[in-house]
């Protein structure tokens, strides 16, 4: 029997059938007004970006080091860490360009706490407006120490709220193949590292850097939070991060050489950053020190393809489980996502990496 259209009020509800609620989100412009950029911070951000680009292009022979917690869950502990790192970064600045990992968005394999922007109360209350405010304030406060910051970009609209404060960006292993994220990279004003997949596919990261270098047109939001069509010029400063995989590490010289050859074949600049954590350490923080030590050895012997190293590090070693709603039970300065190196070990590794650059200079 053919279906006939009835009056509008008899139509079934077709929309929002799985939406529980829709609530207001502050606009990027309002957040930027509440937590404004100033001239000193802008200088730190701009110099953080340009030094990174110079290292990526071989015009600065220092080593890029992206180091900091797997995720920020406690702004006070993050500031405590940032003060120590800022002092160390200053002490080795002639050999290392240090950027602090200040990650607010966590891509989960299945489920879990998704970061300070999504759930700043660590209790499942999802106060996203508060999360955005905390994130922007912390990024500005850390940059005000003269320490440039790096973030992973996960949600495609988050950058409008914070990207002006960020000197280096990352696209994670779970989103490297995503067209949405590649388009986003093409718009970002800072250099962006893109990871190999969790299964170990390195070509996906090479392809992503190639896609991000091109111009794209895609829907997004403007500074007022309104729907907008974005046309980008492309980002020539994207690069591959080798993070290992479920199959094991991939920071060996053969894999590095293979990735550099793939970049050359694609007409891309040849450069690689190694993430000492994740698949390269089997998420055992103690292994990160071994990976960084081996990289320091190779760099000291003249390795130039590896232009940077990433370390997951916090005040205390290891990690702890978060029970939602019980944040007060957490150990101060210890990760609630992946296991991190402690500060003392990090300090030693930064000294080791700086000495490796000295040796490479001969
Ligand atoms: O870096 C962080 C984690 O490795 C990533 O977010 C995935 O975490 P999960 O496997 O614990 O969800
Ligand atoms: C999520 C991260 O890493 P990956 O995407 O490599 O798992 C990270 O660096 O925080």
Automatic annotation (TrEMBL):
<comment type="pathway">
    <text>Metabolic intermediate biosynthesis; chorismate biosynthesis; chorismate from D-erythrose 4-phosphate and phosphoenolpyruvate: step 1/7.</text>
</comment>
<keyword id="KW-0028">Amino-acid biosynthesis</keyword>
<dbReference type="GO" id="GO:0009423">
    <property type="term" value="P:chorismate biosynthetic process"/>
</dbReference>
<protein>
    <recommendedName>
        <fullName>Phospho-2-dehydro-3-deoxyheptonate aldolase</fullName>
        <ecNumber>2.5.1.54</ecNumber>
    </recommendedName>
</protein>
<dbReference type="InterPro" id="IPR006219">
    <property type="entry name" value="DAHP_synth_1"/>
</dbReference>
<dbReference type="InterPro" id="IPR006218">
    <property type="entry name" value="DAHP1/KDSA"/>
</dbReference>
<comment type="function">
    <text>Stereospecific condensation of phosphoenolpyruvate (PEP) and D-erythrose-4-phosphate (E4P) giving rise to 3-deoxy-D-arabino-heptulosonate-7-phosphate (DAHP).</text>
</comment>
<dbReference type="InterPro" id="IPR013785">
    <property type="entry name" value="Aldolase_TIM"/>
</dbReference>
<dbReference type="GO" id="GO:0008652">
    <property type="term" value="P:amino acid biosynthetic process"/>
</dbReference>
<dbReference type="GO" id="GO:0009073">
    <property type="term" value="P:aromatic amino acid family biosynthetic process"/>
</dbReference>
<dbReference type="GO" id="GO:0005737">
    <property type="term" value="C:cytoplasm"/>
</dbReference>
<feature type="domain" description="DAHP synthetase I/KDSA">
    <location>
        <begin position="53"/>
        <end position="350"/>
    </location>
</feature>
<keyword id="KW-0808">Transferase</keyword>
<dbReference type="GO" id="GO:0003849">
    <property type="term" value="F:3-deoxy-7-phosphoheptulonate synthase activity"/>
</dbReference>
<comment type="similarity">
    <text>Belongs to the class-I DAHP synthase family.</text>
</comment>
<keyword id="KW-0057">Aromatic amino acid biosynthesis</keyword>
<dbReference type="Pfam" id="PF00793">
    <property type="entry name" value="DAHP_synth_1"/>
</dbReference>
